[in-house]
Specification:
The complex is a heterodimer of chains A (392) and B (267). Chain A has ten helices and 20 strands. In chain A, strands 6-7-8-3-9-10 form a six-stranded mixed β-sheet, with helices on both faces. Chain A has a five-stranded antiparallel β-sheet with strand order 13-12-11-14-20. With 392 residues, chain A is α+β, with helices and mostly antiparallel strands. Chain A folds into two domains: 2-237 and 380-391, 3-Layer(aba) Sandwich (Rossmann fold), CATH 3.40.50; 243-372, OB fold (Dihydrolipoamide Acetyltransferase, E2P). The two termini of chain A are 43 Å apart. Chain B has a single domain, classed as Orthogonal Bundle (MetI-like fold). Chain B contains eleven helices and no strands. In chain B, helix 1 (7-30) crosses helix 11 (232-254) and helix 3 (56-89) packs across helix 8. The radius of gyration of chain B is 22 Å and the shape is globular. Chain B starts with 6 loop residues before the first helix and ends in a 13-residue tail after the last helix. The relative contact order of chain B is 0.15. The chains are: A alpha+beta (392), B mainly alpha (267). The interface between A and B is medium-sized, with 30 and 23 residues. The structure holds adenosine-5'-triphosphate and magnesium ion. Adenosine-5'-triphosphate (ATP) is lined by residues 20, 23, 25, 43, 45-51, 199 of chain A.
């Protein structure tokens, strides 16, 4: 099955572009979405996620580029002819129809028999755990229930792909977590491809098989949650997925398995072995949980043993605890280094307790620091795409 | 929050209502007056109502009014609904502003002017000189604006995603209109139709320019009778017209003529 389905992607976008007057909403996006996967489009507000999704569903006509579903070019097909269904952000339930008729809507348009409609609507309502609410009017349902009706209404049509536009965006955190679990269960049960739009990185990481991180109408990076978290390609992805410390500096020396980087503040810190040549500028990303804090006796001069550095070339950063926040799973510290750089550190071991003002050393495995590819600032990229748009 | 009554305001409001409705109340009262002459109360009677329903000229005029109203309501409701829907989509922009203003124009044009212009229109272009159809088309001309405005108000508040959802679930554009847009606009369409009926049923001035021999509507008939004095019989007809119109406008109001469509509850 895998080999056969991998050959033809469920959805393929080729150079998909959408220009709204002066806004270039989607800019030459190329994507292949595999059959049966939970695929997320993740990015900040206004980056073009909804527009991309709407072009897959046929609700928006692309300016250029094509949309293929299982190898068929559907770019010019109206939404009613595409084998996909959408769960809208605000649910868009039909206010003049009750729950049963909302869910039955798609089946009625296909002129299914009465018995078939009753059976399939019943199944769909059971799938989303709404049995018994058939005759309710949508405006007398809670947000979570409306969300389930929207889901049932789309799934009952047995689409090849389900498109979901921030389906949990309007719900409170607790309900959201609960429905995330349910969405995943439903996807497993019906076994169809889900394309999921969200600006919540945590949600995307929890649910997805693969994620496309978007910025300013373009895909910045495509990969599994692990790949995106552990190996973000650039500063934008690193900053968007989870929290991370980004340190700007210059490579001082590179050896087999480690390098030494001089930060903008003049301090030296360890970096990975795979780094640009000495003298090159570099951006290091270090996750807060990869940093270890060590208490430093007040008068200590040098941190000789930190980072397991026998050659003494690389020292670790030192600083004072500036702030701490108890997070339940651990304690988050903000440390101001001697040179003035702010670093966020997450300590999950309860033994490591520091007070504001304490002098600490920050140590990390050289390999856990990541060298980011140089990128434009997001602002520059947006400005860039705007000028492109004007030229077009 | 409930505030205490504002007494001067209440008194003022009562005064306004008194001013508006006293003439109508008097008219209704005197339709029960036991005297062939008006303005002298002689006692209560119901005799004028049965007299009306035996009067062939009254019944004939009523029948013409009903025919005119039926055509006018059908025409102005269909055309006004489509126009209201179109204008809702055209919102904003220079073209939208012009279209919005133009649709208000028939409502503020003096009826005499409108009557003459329609008369010229029919006489010069079609050589028509009065018929039920001509009256009905004139009524359509001034009723469309009202239907349009009522329907547009509701159409603007419709969430376009709901129609998109219908398309997404397999509806063609026409089927989405039929199964989603129209049912959601229905209260406004119904209200528009009732307003059109009320306007058509008691229009006098514009109609008077379009009527020919054999096409006298009820208001025209009443007007012609008044020249020979206001009799209780006329009061009785007028009472019936006022009651029918009032009930219809009340229903139109209740089913949501001016109220926007119910928004999706936000959570
Ligand atoms: N119909 C439209 N007309 C003009 N501009 C539009 C239209 N729809 C979207 N845009 C613009 O296109 C860009 C991308 O919008 P889109 O809705 O795809 O963003 P998004 O990633 O879904 O954002 P959000 O997370 O806020 O929903 C935005 O700058 C938006 O203002
Ligand atoms: Mg969006």
């Amino acid at each position: 099955m895998e080999a056969a389905t991998n050959a033809v992607p469920e959805i393929r976008l080729r150079d998909l572009t959408k220009q709204f007057r002066e806004v270039l909403a989607v800019d030459h996006v190329n994507l292949e979405i595999r059959t049966g996967e939970f695929f997320s489009l993740l990015g900040p507000s206004g980056c073009g996620k909804t527009t991309t999704l709407r072009m897959m569903g046929g609700l928006e006509a692309p300016t250029s580029g094509t949309v293929e579903i299982r190898g068929n070019d559907v770019t010019r097909q109206p939404p009613e002819r595409r084998p996909v269904n959408t769960v809208f952000q605000n649910y868009a339930l039909f206010p003049h129809l009750n729950v049963f008729e909302n869910v039955a809507f798609g089946l009625r348009r296909r002129h299914e028999t009465k018995d078939e409609i009753r059976r399939r609507v019943g199944d769909a309502l059971a799938l989303v755990r709404l049995t018994g609410l058939d005759t309710r009017s949508p405006d007398r349902l809670s947000g979570g229930q409306q969300q389930r009706v929207a889901l049932a209404r789309a799934l009952v049509c047995q689409p090849m792909v389900l498109l979901l536009d921030e389906p949990l965006g309007a719900l409170d955190l607790k309900l959201r977590k609960q429905l995330q679990v349910e969405l995943k269960r439903i996807q497993r049960e019906v076994g169809i491809t889900f394309v999921y739009v969200t600006h919540d990185q945590e949600e995307a990481l929890t649910l997805s098989d693969r994620i496309a991180v978007m910025r300013a109408g373009q895909v910045e990076q495509l990969g599994s949650p692990e790949e995106l978290y552990d190996r973000p390609r650039n500063r934008f992805v690193a900053g968007f997925i989870g929290t991370t410390n980004i340190l700007d500096g210059e490579v001082v020396s590179v050896s087999q398995d480690r390098s030494v980087v001089r930060l903008g503040t003049g301090e030296l810190c360890p970096g990975p072995g795979r780094a640009p040549a000495a003298g090159q500028p570099v951006e290091l990303a270090i996750r807060p949980e990869a940093i270890e804090l060590r208490a430093m006796p007040g008068g200590a001069e040098r941190a000789s043993s930190l980072g397991g550095s026998p050659d003494g070339g690389a020292s670790a950063l030192r600083g004072n605890i500036e702030q701490s926040a108890y997070l339940g799973t651990g304690i988050s510290y903000i440390v101001r280094t001697v040179g003035g750089q702010l670093v966020t550190v997450l300590c999950t071991r309860p033994a490591d307790r520091f007070d504001t003002g304490d002098l600490v050393e920050l140590a990390w495995e050289p390999a856990s620091a990541l060298v980011l590819a140089p990128t434009d600032e997001p602002g520059q990229a947006a400005a860039q795409s705007k000028t492109d748009a004007q030229e077009a | 929050m409930r505030k205490g009554r504002n007494i001067p305001l209440t008194v003022y409001a009562l005064g306004v209502y008194l001013f508006l409705f006293t003439p109508i109340v008097v008219l209704v009262l005197f339709s029960f007056n036991d005297s062939p002459r008006n303005f002298m109360w002689r006692g209560f009677t119901l005799e004028w109502y049965p007299v009306l329903f035996k009067d062939a000229r009254v019944l004939g005029a009523l029948w013409i009014s009903i025919q005119v109203a039926a055509i006018a309501v059908a025409g102005s409701t269909v055309l006004g609904t489509l126009l209201g829907l179109g204008l809702a989509r055209l919102r904003g922009g220079f073209g939208g502003g012009i279209a919005d203003t133009l649709i208000l124009l028939p409502m503020v044009t003096p009826e005499v002017v409108m009557g003459i212009s329609l008369l010229l229109f029919f006489a010069l272009l079609f050589d028509a000189h009065g018929s039920i159809l001509q009256i009905a088309i004139s009524h359509i001309a001034f009723s469309i604006s009202y239907v349009t405005i009522v329907v547009r108000a509701r159409a603007v508040s419709l969430d376009p995603r709901i129609v998109e959802a219908a398309r997404d679930l397999g509806s063609s554009p026409l089927s989405a209109f039929w199964h989603v847009t129209l049912p959601l606009l229905m209260p406004a369409v119904g209200a528009g139709a009732m307003i059109a009926f009320a306007l058509s049923f008691d229009d006098l001035i514009i109609t008077s320019f379009q009527a020919g021999p054999g096409s006298s509507t009820l208001p025209l008939y009443i007007y012609s009778r008044i020249r020979f004095g206001v009799t209780p019989e006329i009061n009785a007809i007028s009472t019936i017209i006022v009651s029918v119109t009032a009930v219809i406008i009340l229903v139109a109001w209740r089913i949501g003529a001016v109220k926007p469509a119910k928004p999706q509850p936000t959570i």
